């Protein structure tokens, strides 16, 4: 198939799906003249785990950032849990529902680990302090670093900081988690730890979209791989199909590079 | 007391504006000169010229001297309350022009040049004198000063007069007299005492009075006969009717012996001249004067005003500069941004002293509301320094805000915080750490800049010091006391900075660990 052609999904209707957790139709995003996302169409069902793959600059991060409207899209439509995402969307509600973890953790350096986790629930969800702290300790326990609660981020290793970032996002009790290259800045040992936490979350049924080059997660946990290049989706396939028999030459070339390293 | 009279004036102003017809009717009746407004005679004076006008006690807002006696006698005659506004000499005539005072009484020579703009009535004879250190031989004419350096008070007419001598000297092929100008009379005298200049120019009446302080330290070496330097005069805005009334009043005071009594009281007589001849040994540091200055209420009050002006103006500057910094850091170009950029350039570019003088003296010309009594020197200084400081603080805030990682705002946004929460809980606490040291730096600088406000008559620490020096000539002791106050304030804020910086241990791995354990 010609690499420039949009991969059609036979199951997709022209109208957005109300039942899907995320439904994207004909969605585009521009940076001035540059087309960052080019007429994308796909659905993500509740509880699905999606890995977004593709070379740098292909629009992976931009794509997942449109879901919590940190990057507003310019045309087409996005529905999350049946609700239209546009300039009228209540951002507080949306972001309570959609959590995000960044490549560089972006922890608040002036707050302790515990305060990093309790700040937003208290401010945004009006959770009482005591309750927010109990919940934060529970999630810190889940990501395996309950003993670091009173330290400052600067005292933690990269892996530990990313665990805090995950716990911080979970404290908002989101239904969708967005991971933006969460392991790209970590050493192999730390990667294993973070991936196993993501596995646990996935098993708990939280809808997950993850931009990553991490093979273990992509191969064994993901339900679908979205492969992007130059702002377009070239393939949406289950991982076993994608890694063994990619349908586009671009994906094949990308996989060859990925395996070499 | 000064405050109270101001307050009383403000109240009477309020009452009279409610009854404008009654007030103008009284003026038209011709009982009092037109510059006596609402039953108050407001007199501007620079209290650094004993015995005409100076501060004798510790209350800098209550000058004394022959000028003040004359002011009181005139006020009494016109059945008016007297309000004295002490200020820098250079501010006297601009304040008179700006209608901040009705009259200037400050040991000022009657000169034709000044009478072009204002009316003047003489009330006291005087003579110009050239004074040098003791043991200096008398000279015979001003030409003998050729090539020598002399000191005069700036804003006085002495410099102009000596420049005329210089024209003659240059024409005769001789070296001109070198003139140094100082803002107060006592600084002028100091230059002679420490030997920096050969002589100073002053009025004989002042020397008679100062004979105790200057006893044996200086001597009159020449009394040049300048016919137009023979009288001290009161000045007021031109008005033919006022002129007649003031003239009549002064003549009456001379007639009834009021002026003569005042001359006696302040030792303004020819006999006093004889005392200025004997020698005296050099004095050493007077510790008791130093300590009494240090513990005096006047110095404490001055320091409080300095501190209050600096703290308040910086607080205002910080508050207004934060939204300015956020706007300037924002993306794109807008008219608002261009306006803010101009604001920062102008107020960083213009000298602070000029801004002070502009707000105090020029603003009332455009907006008469600023010459009313509520616009006090304190308020004017506050406005000038807050505007000036905000222009600097914008740059500090801007750099501190952009030093906070962009990922912080992103993460806070992703957690659903609104703009206010993002700034309040995430960006400001981190920007504060970066902004604190340069902000304290600026504050210390601002604390010292407040001393400029003495030119618009704010009685801050340095103004108090200068007034006290003019009274006693113990300048080393008073300067030392002022220094102690300034240093104590600065050290306190440096200490405070260290304490606050401890709270920023989160930015340093070692310190964070030490704090946690």
What does this structure look like?
The complex is a heterodimer of chains A (261) and B (517). Chain A has nine helices and ten strands. With 261 residues, chain A is of the alpha/beta class. Chain A has a domain of 173 residues: P-loop containing nucleotide triphosphate hydrolases (Rossmann fold, 3-Layer(aba) Sandwich), CATH 3.40.50.300. In chain A, the strands form two sheets. Chain A has a six-stranded mixed β-sheet, with helices on both faces. A four-stranded antiparallel β-sheet of chain A has the order 2-1-4-5, covered by helices on one side. In chain A, strand 7, helix 6 and strand 8 form a beta-alpha-beta unit. In chain A, helix 3 crosses helix 4. The longest helix of chain A has 16 residues. With 517 residues, chain B is of the alpha/beta class. Chain B has three domains: 172 residues, D-Maltodextrin-Binding Protein, domain 2 (3-Layer(aba) Sandwich), CATH 3.40.190.10; 95 residues, Periplasmic binding protein-like II (D-Maltodextrin-Binding Protein, domain 2, 3-Layer(aba) Sandwich), CATH 3.40.190; 226 residues, MetI-like fold. Chain B contains 21 helices and twelve strands. In chain B, the strands form three sheets. A five-stranded mixed β-sheet of chain B has the order 4-1-5-12-6. A five-stranded mixed β-sheet of chain B has the order 9-8-10-7-11, sandwiched between helices. Chain B is elongated. The chains are: A alpha/beta (261), B alpha/beta (517). At the A-B interface, helix 2 and helix 3 of A face helix 17, helix 18 and helix 21 of B. Chain B: Pfam families: BPD_transp_1, SBP_bac_3. Chain B: InterPro entries: AA_ABC_transptr_permease_3TM (IPR010065), ArtM/GltK/GlnP/TcyL/YhdX-like (IPR043429), MetI-like (IPR000515), MetI-like_sf (IPR035906), Solute-binding_3/MltF_N (IPR001638). Chain B: One of its GO terms (cellular component) is ATP-binding cassette (ABC) transporter complex. Chain B: It is found in: Cell inner membrane; Cell membrane.
